From TrEMBL:
This is LuxR family transcriptional regulator. The keyword Transcription regulation applies. The modification 4-aspartylphosphate is found at D56. It comes from the Bacteria. Pfam families: GerE, Response_reg. InterPro entries: CheY-like_superfamily, NreC/VraR/RcsB-like_REC, Sig_transdc_resp-reg_receiver, Tscrpt_reg_LuxR_C, WalR-like. PROSITE patterns: HTH_LUXR_2 (PS50043), RESPONSE_REGULATORY (PS50110). Keywords: DNA-binding, Phosphoprotein, Transcription, Transcription regulation.
Amino acid sequence: MSEPLRAVLGEDQAIVREGIATILRSAGITVAAAVDNAVDLVRVTKEQRPDVVITDIQMPPNLDADGLRAAQEIRAAQPETAVIVLSQFLDASYALDLVGDDPSGVGYLLKEKVASPQILTDAVERVVAGESALDPDVISTLVGRKRKQDPLAALTPKEKEVLSLMAEGHSNSGIARKLVVTVPAVERHVTGIFMKLGLSHAGSDQHRRVLAVLRHLKQ
């Protein structure tokens, strides 16, 4: 029998912190520690070596993006620990800063979505498995941005749907399930997307696909 996943939680609002901890425990995830500031989050994560860290962006001591910076520090020091950042704001730049050059083991969710336990626990399972879990609304914001010379304009509506799901971190089979189409159909859309965006060299690896898409959307 496998050991339960272990999580460290960073959230300065006590009610929210306890609510998230309750969701995790209900899913059989052990909350190894729960802290209210970014300094303790980094320290406790180093001590506990959890499977996943879940943190708010804005936390003490500065009530700025301390949680995001702590998450980046943890990723650099403990790459084996997955990280999920919770944000109150629809700010795609935070997600891009968190992902950096490696989308594996990274999640970025809007706090309002965490009211649904399944969304949070699904994200935990995905990032611990080395995948990414990026909020659909954040990806939609990136995909929908206007650019002076926008290669996204060449994509069909269905290709834009597939692109958004790819950037969230879904595999071809996962995309097929969500869109109720066949995997070969998704593969054709993916091929078309990469060709139109000049990303055909990105390869088939899921992490490279997500990273290639995010890099393009960031431009």
